[in-house]
């Protein structure tokens, strides 16, 4: 029988999530909070892939937990945010290539810091060894071609690995044919982070027990939109360089700066907010074993943005050399860890939202 | 006995919906309020934590409710379930007041769901709490605390001291420590019924009540209710009766709540311990009949029933928290459930032979009835002939008791000598005045909200 509570501690993450979801599905009081509960009601029995899908749809808003009449000390001992976080985390590590790297970096902030040190050493050494004779701004310290030669593979190789993971995910959750309208729907959901608004618009439960607040949603969106702006900034620089022959340094009104400076500021604010909120939140409502890795990832994003801003502020001074090495090392670490860190959540969640958009159409 | 150093204007006994509505109303009127909740924090809120909706009168569409639900229709629905066992004046006042409660609830933090995909379609008559009753309870506690209300958990009120027509103080055990005295100028009793006290149930109902399951909180043991009745307070409601529905026999003894309900009865045959059918499983649609099955099962030997269905019907009802017992043949299923295989097979054979061809329609009365059986099944009667076969054990699950304190329009508690000048009651402890029999979905929360607000207002006016 699936409700043998004595055996609960021996259940795998997926089995424990199944036990809990079957109880949830007989109640359904939480239907209005987020995308998970309407998706749950489509089934009576949950295959492993169904649970992977629900887990990646869950944004850990915790509304269901604080509203649940069956949380511990009740014998049903429901903790849906944690149960789904475990399955979700498991799916990110299981579908990653190679899995051992994913386990290492998800769990250990120290490993992330170690990689950062390696990257720092690399860039200081590169700048010392390959310092060009000409070039303006930071190209005076490292030639554009060298940067491109390093960063294009460091960016594209992890992306390729992520693509393979997402393909496996799509198969596992039995996603249907992909349509543009599904992508648009998912984009809308993520762009406004609807799954952290609580369904009623009061926000989610995170840093203040059962009180709803918008703080986490705001901090997350500062981070997400800030990151996208910074990414757009770098992309615009690349386009200006290759298409228009306009090379860095750019003035403040040029797209790389117009996008990069507010984006960087938003990222720093977002990282600060997310880190502080995480310190206040109950770690038992998430995947506890990756708390350190998650915190290190938030800080890494903050440092990427902060060093970028400081580098801009230091334009023309002697500090540009070491600052450039530090900034490039943080960016390199972030890129390399995309498939093996919390960064992967964005790719999986978005894919889950796309898959859900399709599944919703099928049930109508 | 220790005196608590602080004195309050109003002491509220209980920590569910009615208590919180009273506390918030009184605190907003400027009173210093203390809530004495018997349960620890995780179980706070009494039976309100298991509720899910609020039945609300409305003359036109009113978010989240659709259409209109007028006083007369609401009262008619109440008369149907109570068979006239209601006090019309109080009932109509409650119904009329429900309309202004909905916006009040929203202003005080309660959030409703726009629509539901569940099996019971009640979007016209009932407003569903987003996240259910515990979310409502959380919202009210947060609102009350912001208003400066003091909340004490694990506070068991042992005695209400009555001096003539006034209450002077309470004896309260806090976290199992020796009792302390809590004084206030006015008191509100909102501590529920006695359905979790199995000894009391057994005295009222008979020893078979010990086999009943209690669907809600184990903290409603009626200590304060009994104390007031012993002190001569006027009572209302049948002291021997409780509201019970048929739930999964494997449910926890207490606090199983919504997930232990079983909706399979209309598509099943239900046999007793001896393998015999005992009532028309297809008498009416399940929302209209689920409430009588607790009593029906309670009247059977060992207070147990067994619902049997075949493969045709397994997807026709909401999933239950416990998986059904499954077998390829009826005798095998009977054996797995501890029943006499031959007796159950004979019952199924008789039933199958009495089924007639016709159109089966799961969501309406389809008239597909048996012929020639002493206990007919008058709708949805289809033979059990497609393996695998499934079985669920049914037991009575007690929701609430009817015996309560008789109150006036102003929620004031009375004695044969007249009203107690500083004592009010709200919620399940007085619901028997209005709900003398049966149950109407979402009406308990209506009574609690309406009378909680009245009690809070009257108590605050008394101390002002």
From TrEMBL, chain A:
Keyword Transmembrane attributed: yes
Source organism, top-level taxon: Bacteria
Keyword set, alphabetical order: Membrane, Transmembrane, Transmembrane helix
Signal peptide (residue range): none
Name this protein carries in UniProt: 4Fe-4S ferredoxin
Transmembrane helix among keywords: yes
Segments crossing the lipid bilayer: 110-130, 142-164, 222-244, 259-279, 291-314, 320-340
TrEMBL record, chain B:
Pfam families, per the entry: FAD_binding_2 (PF00890)
PANTHER family found in the cross-reference section: FAD-DEPENDENT OXIDOREDUCTASE 2 FAD BINDING DOMAIN-CONTAINING PROTEIN, FUMARATE REDUCTASE
Protein name in the entry: Tricarballylate dehydrogenase
Obligatory cofactor(s): FAD
Annotated FAD-dependent oxidoreductase 2 FAD-binding domain residues: 9-436
Gene3D superfamilies cross-referenced by the UniProt entry: FAD/NAD(P)-binding domain, Succinate dehydrogenase/fumarate reductase flavoprotein, catalytic domain
Organism, as annotated: Cereibacter changlensis JA139
An example molecular function term from Gene Ontology annotations: oxidoreductase activity
Keywords: FAD, Flavoprotein, Oxidoreductase
